[in-house]
């Protein structure tokens, strides 16, 4: 007679995990998601000393594609060419957004890069509202960017870095619009999973060519896996849970804190100390984002 193999009490563990998540208020979940994304960005930037930004993007997207594909495999049966076209556009935008942001991150302090990138969702919120008050938020955000611009020769903020961050903002705005369109056409999380595959196909040639044999180093692969989990898989799961338990407007207001959190993570993880003018610029973008979100 053979002994029964040990089987962990999965239902009990799942119930315990659910109870733990339910004990965290939704606002706390949003802050955890923001912190996860920015810590992932901090580790990614630290990895730039050994791998080019495009190679780190490849590791991040490859991790997200693998994990999400195991959770929600895209079902393409019954979808039209138009549906697939929207999903593919979503994936291309996702890949270009990450490539642009990591190039900006390589040239700018984290808090500044995220503050400029945040013009993307801010512009979408303003466009959806169309109230006169939104002109105030636009002016405030523009003031923040003007404070960050490298007008002096000694500035550590470069125009190429600002350019890449603005590109990332543009693609983030497109990401928001196409994400909603993809969600209406694909069942469940299948649209995001399909988009991640498209994004990986776009990024892989660039990332592999840039990273070369260094991508095969086990320690770099492990760090890249951590970046992918922290930047994509974990925050996505937490945000879904938070959205299930709170209004979208409140969620958007809390997400507006992301540039400030990025600046703090940059300080703790990377030792990036922002000057008073740079903190003022980040504050302008955060306040503008909160204001635009509240009036939509």
Structure, briefly:
With 296 residues, the chain is an all-alpha fold.
Structure, explained:
- This protein has 296 residues and is mainly α.
- The chain has one domain (26-294).
- 78% of the residues lie in helices and 0% in strands.
- The protein has 13 helices and no strands.
- The protein is globular, with a radius of gyration of 20 Å.
Features:
disordered N terminus; mainly alpha; 296 residues
Mean pLDDT: 85
Proportion of residues in β-strands: under 5%
Helix-strand sequence = HHHHHHHHHHHHH
Poorly predicted tracts of residues: 1-8, 10-14
Q: Radius of gyration, Cα only, in angstroms?
A: 20 Å
Task: Tell me the number of structural domains.
Answer: 1
Number of DSSP strand runs: 0
The helix content is over 70%
Topology:
Blueprint: H1 10-23, H2 26-47, H3 53-71, H4 81-105, H5 110-117, H6 119-129, H7 134-148, H8 159-185, H9 190-211, H10 218-245, H11 248-255, H12 258-270, H13 276-294
